[in-house]
Amino acid sequence: MGLETKLMTTKEAAAQWGITTRRVQVLCEVGKVVGAVRMGRTWIIPRGTQKPIDGRTKQAKKGFLKEE
């Protein structure tokens, strides 16, 4: 099993999570994607990584307030 089967690009993550490639890049930049590593200009994400909760939504904000 090679690394290509264990890792995915931002483009692949975007397709899997139903969001844009740019949004995946931003999530990686701010540290929301667990295990994401920047290699040059590319973000490498472990396959099977769950989509982070979008903190911009009302649902996420309600969940955030409940945790406090």
Keywords:
single chain, about 70 residues, alpha+beta, Multidrug-efflux Transporter Regulator, Chain: A, Domain 2, three-stranded antiparallel β-sheet, 4 helices, elongated
A few lines on this structure:
With 68 residues, this protein is an alpha+beta fold.
Question: What does this 3D model show about the protein?
Answer:
With 68 residues, the chain is α+β, with helices and mostly antiparallel strands. It has one domain: Orthogonal Bundle (Multidrug-efflux Transporter Regulator, Chain: A, Domain 2), CATH 1.10.1660. The protein is built from four helices and three strands, in the order H-E-H-H-E-E-H. The protein has helices at residues 3-6, 10-17, 21-29, 58-67; strands at 7-8, 37-39, 42-46. Strands 1-3-2 form a three-stranded antiparallel β-sheet. Helix 2 (10-17) crosses helix 3 (21-29). The longest helix has 10 residues, at 58-67. The mean pLDDT is 87.
Outline the low-pLDDT stretches. none
Helical content stands at: 40-55%
Lateral arrangement of strands in the main beta sheet: 1-3-2
Q: How many strand units?
A: 3
The name CATH uses for the topology is Multidrug-efflux Transporter Regulator, Chain: A, Domain 2
Distance between the termini: 42 Å
Number of domains: 1
Structural class: alpha+beta
| Rg for CA atoms | 13 Å
Number of discrete helical segments: 4
- Chain-averaged pLDDT: 87
Residues in β-strands, percent = 5-15%
Work out the oligomeric state of the chains in this entry: single chain
The second-level CATH architecture is Orthogonal Bundle
What's the shape? elongated
CATH class: Mainly Alpha
The main sheet comes to:
3 strands, antiparallel
